[in-house]
Amino acid sequence: MSVGQVDPQQVASIIREVAAEEILTRFRHLSAGQIREKKPGELVTEADIEAERVLTRRLADLIPGARVVGEEAVSADHRLLQALDNEGIVWVIDPVDGTANFAKGNARFAVIVALVRDGVTVAGWILDPTTDRLIIAQQGSGAWEGDNRLRVLPPAPLADLTGSVKRSGLLSSLVAKIGRKGSAAHDYIDLVTGVLHFAHYNRLMPWDHAAGVLIHAEAGGYAALTDGRPYRPRAEPGCLLLAPSAGTWTSLQAIID
């Protein structure tokens, strides 16, 4: 099945090839000169830069006229984000989500790619390169890992919920388990494969969430900004909360917000 002008499996092949050539070859082999801070507390590595460079070229070639918004390119020129405010087709790329983990030799990192049409995410891909675990979602067609259709965990009482949050506050005493392990991509994988019930984010960069929110929705989940606005694949202020159902979302929102 195609998404507009592109075959999702062709995109998956490109992501896998780039991950093998530009990311895995550097994993646990980075020199000090291949890691730097692009701003305080935020790392970038040679793998991020080279993977995004190749993905940008190869994905742009699939759809003539499509624009590309990549994390590292935006770091150099924030005006590129304006592409998501306009009509048209935009690729959104996070070449290495979980760069701090990657730089430390921790395997909890991933590649995220989303396809946005006229401001709406229509397809998303998340690849864990170290295990070759790939999740794909297309708008209206479900979320899949190979031939396995994915579903979020069923709603449960607050005391039984597990989630990913940065700051716990009161929540930690009311739910079963919370934590954060440095990769939004892996959180999204966990949300649709029976590991996590919910997740909360207060930094809404499109490369972190555009693909994941679609994957979560196609797996039956419910997500919105905590002020009730729907999520949009843009860089905008606000906090994002994802849960198995609208009812669970409301219960969590009352505590988190």
Task: Give a written overview of the molecule.
With 257 residues, the protein is of the alpha+beta class. The protein has 2 domains: 142 residues, Fructose-1,6-Bisphosphatase, subunit A, domain 1 (Fructose-1,6-Bisphosphatase, Chain A, domain 1, 2-Layer Sandwich); 99 residues, D-Maltodextrin-Binding Protein, domain 2 (3-Layer(aba) Sandwich), CATH 3.40.190. It is 30% helix and 27% strand. The strands form 3 sheets. The protein has a 7-stranded mixed sheet, with helices on both faces. A 5-stranded mixed sheet has the order 11-10-12-14-13, with helices on both faces. Strands 1-2 form a two-stranded antiparallel ribbon. β6 and β7 form a beta hairpin. It is globular. It starts with 7 loop residues before the first helix and ends with a helix.
Write the layout of secondary structure elements.
Layout lengths: L7 H17 L10 E5 L2 E4 H17 L4 E4 H6 L12 E9 L1 H5 L6 E8 L2 E9 L4 E6 L3 E4 L2 E2 L12 E3 L12 E3 L4 H8 L6 E4 L4 H13 L3 E4 L14 E4 L2 H11 L1
Parallel strand pairs: 3-4, 10-11, 10-12
Antiparallel strand pairs: 1-2, 4-5, 5-6, 6-7, 7-8, 8-9, 12-14, 13-14
Helix pairs in contact: 1-2, 5-6
How many distinct helices?
A: 7
CATH class of the largest domain: Alpha Beta
> What's the number of structural domains?
2
Strand content: 25-35%
Spatial arrangement of strands, main beta sheet: 3-4-5-6-7-8-9
Which residues sit in consecutive blocks of at least 5 with pLDDT less than 50? none
Helical/strand content category: alpha+beta
- The end-to-end span amounts to 40 Å
- Per CATH, the architecture of the largest domain is 2-Layer Sandwich
Radius of gyration: 17 Å
H/E series: HEEHEHEHEEEEEEEHEHEEH
The helix content, as a percent range, equals: 25-40%
Main beta-sheet strand count, sense and barrel state:
7 strands, mixed
- Under CATH, the topology of the largest domain can be stated as Fructose-1,6-Bisphosphatase, Chain A, domain 1
**Quick check: average pLDDT?**
95
Number of strands: 14
Shape: globular
CATH superfamily of the largest domain, by name, is Fructose-1,6-Bisphosphatase, subunit A, domain 1
